[in-house]
Specification:
The structure is a homodimer. Chain A is α/β, with parallel strands linked by helices. Chain A has two domains: 97 residues, Tetrapyrrole methylase, N-terminal domain (Cobalt-precorrin-4 Transmethylase, domain 1, 3-Layer(aba) Sandwich), CATH 3.40.1010.10; 88 residues, Tetrapyrrole methylase, C-terminal domain (Methyltransferase, Cobalt-precorrin-4 Transmethylase, Domain 2). Chain A has six helices and ten strands, in the order H-E-H-E-H-E-H-E-E-H-E-H-E-E-E-E. Chain A is elongated, with a radius of gyration of 21 Å.
């Protein structure tokens, strides 16, 4: 009888762990051929794959089930995805890495990393991640006081879109990396003399 | 005649760009199947592949040329590799990402990113890179004053080995992630009550 109980518990544990893995957020990387074999396998096993149009385009050849284009990126949309993941094996594809200003923090889910724009930028700049602080200006205001605070100890790398007011960085010398792995452009100069023209901009300020 | 000059310049430019790409540092990721297709192609094209025994084991099936195990990780060894790259297409494989406490800053070379232990840790912790500061205790002393300074604004993630004196973090609450993608272990508690037992430890301190 004890043996049977143990086996039953074992089965339940497996079911639970299987259940918990029904929702996975997968990073697709940002350049062509950035996808890892781990990510490919997870996408191939999915019954439904969600993502922005861009993210789905990156991984299209590995989708065996259905796919659905995300549009709102709202709490309501996230809730619907969670609901569907109670019945089906669902994957959400996040461009770059889900834990770098991505969709990884929007769900309680397994997360599979991908190559982020931050990594590609650091590779081009020749700077180690342990020498920078990464700031996300897409989702919240990045203020100059905080930037200056970090610059005492570290270089600063800001993820920005064209709405970011670069003039507020004044006479700081910056490197702008725009549209990486697309129509890439790298510029260098004083912040006060720069204009942002892309929603995929990385601003690097050397300490 | 002008046409000929242009063509010659074009050829020289191509030769130069080819020459500059003779040394590439490639990230192999840290878990099985982390290697990207981009990284695989670069390794397959190499005449000589350098790396630690661990790094070479990760990518062995893609090496078509010779391979050489790095041992010293000294300036002398780096210079020898640079010398060889003047005659041959040389790749240095760095476990994880070359720009995360890796070999990327040791050479003036092209760098191809890989999935780092930091990314795997953040995926497990459910924390975004833009909410942390990453510190490298492998290569230099990490002092408590600096940690406390960053903790005012961010969570802190420290890359450490077993020589790191965790007691100096006192009553701070920490999460230890050890040997990721190997015989993984995750522990939580007060720093003063912890002991480090692995040279592949990540210490996470939530803000």
């Amino acid at each position: 009888m004890k043996g049977l109980l143990v086996r039953r518990e074992d089965i339940l544990r497996r079911l639970r762990s299987w259940r918990l893995k029904m929702l996975t957020v997968v990073g697709s990387g940002i350049c062509r051929d950035h996808l890892t074999d781990r990510a490919k396998k997870i996408i191939e096993r999915a019954e439904v794959v969600y993502g922005s149009k861009k993210a789905l385009d990156n991984v299209r050849e590995f989708i065996k089930g259905k796919f659905k284009v995300m549009k709102g990126f709202s709490e309501a949309e996230y809730s619907e995805i969670v609901e569907e993941s109670k019945r089906k094996n669902v994957v959400v594809v996040s461009t770059g890495d889900p834990m770098v200003a991505g969709l990884g923090t929007k769900f309680h889910a397994e997360v599979e990393p991908g190559i982020s724009s931050v990594q590609v930028a650091l590779a081009k700049l020749g700077v180690d991640l342990c020498d920078v602080v990464v700031m996300n200006a897409h989702s919240k205001e990045v203020n100059l006081r905080e930037i200056m605070h970090f610059l005492k100890f570290r270089s600063v790398l800001i993820l920005a879109n064209r709405r970011f007011d670069i003039k507020k960085l004044g006479e700081l010398k910056v490197v702008l990396l725009e549209n990486m792995c697309m129509n890439e452009r790298v510029r260098e100069g004083l912040a006060s003399e720069m204009e942002l023209s892309s929603d995929y901009t990385i601003i690097f300020i050397r300490r």
